[in-house]
What we know:
By secondary structure, this protein is of the alpha/beta class. The protein is 28% helix and 25% strand. It starts with 13 loop residues before the first strand and ends in a 7-residue tail after the last strand.
Amino acid sequence: MATASCQLCSKERWQTFSHIAFGLWDTTELELKRQHSLYPLSQCQHCGHVQVSVQYTNDLFAKLYFHSAQEAVMWHESLIASHAPYQEMINFALSGLDDINNLLGLTQQSPKTVVDFGCGEGKLLAATQAALPDSELVGIDFNDRFSQTNIRYLAFDLNNLEQLTSDAWPQGIDLAMASHVLEHVINPVEFLRGIKQQLSPKGAIFIEVPDFSAPHPLPSIGMSNLVNLQHIHYFSLDSLQFAAKQAGLRLIKQARVITGYIPRLQVLLQAANDIALNHDSTQPESHTVSTVNAVSHYQHQCQQLRAQLAAKVRAAITRHGKAGLWGIGADFYLLISEHTDLLELIASRQLALFDYSLAGKHYHGQTIACSSKLANAIHPTFLCPLLAETRIKMRAISQEWQQVVDPFFKGI
């Protein structure tokens, strides 16, 4: 793997403190084999930014984003049908624009053109349309998941915004938005510069990213998979402000909130020369706990959750003579890598394996059974994925299957 430079300061002075595991099953043969690699998580010794410190190739991007369907942002079980997080985003952005107009003594007016960079399905734009019914809305993304039929969509590579023309907004963008996108792009500074070039004279940029300014609350960790290889960058308020400064932008407004499983860092940015604010009001808060500690804490707690699952599996086998695991994916592979005694239980058929898409494949001398077989199971079978979004779907399928256990669900 080729080493990348820091995408905030362009230096190449890394201190690697951990790794992110990523792999896919090779299903071309009857016996499953894992194509698996470890990717370094590092802190820049010049500016302090935390990122995956290898170069992301087109092949890696294809594996990360196109090998399976993309899960939606998982806020919490109680918020599955709620648009509240997206309404909060647009309310934050609009209140910031109002503050700017008040400061400059300008008449309050709604942004005429709003563009969501990395719009995904379009949930933020749907909330924006409800708040701004007369504004022109545009969504931009690269993976064509957009589902809003009455909002314009443009397919474009978010890592090459310098190639984006202003044909769709000749008067410039009044409000640009990028929610949970900045951590995914290769170069956040160039991404922000690309958006800045498209702004109207008083245009602003709303950004939201997962907040790694401090350790996350224990009940939230692992449930929304915030440390994964799709997330190249891990931001604190300080590093996000530094990225904005490098792009010629300044912080106008900031907030740190927690919604369900996700600590959220929100900022509103404008071109640095567009507005003169009191210096003290734009300074980010200082945090005594580093991003390195926050990310390390997150990974350690995920490992602890897998250890708890392994203990429950062993206890179930001791009590019932047999147990099962449902979901033979990334979390399963990490589980058996960290608790290798489970491989012996698989080989001896004391630990049965279930997976819909991998049914019929072999692993350590055992044939993986289709998950539909769990309807008649007589031994406890545990859901293996940590991600709450996946387990919600599995619980919906198995609600009548008495022996299926979600070891990570603590209730709503």
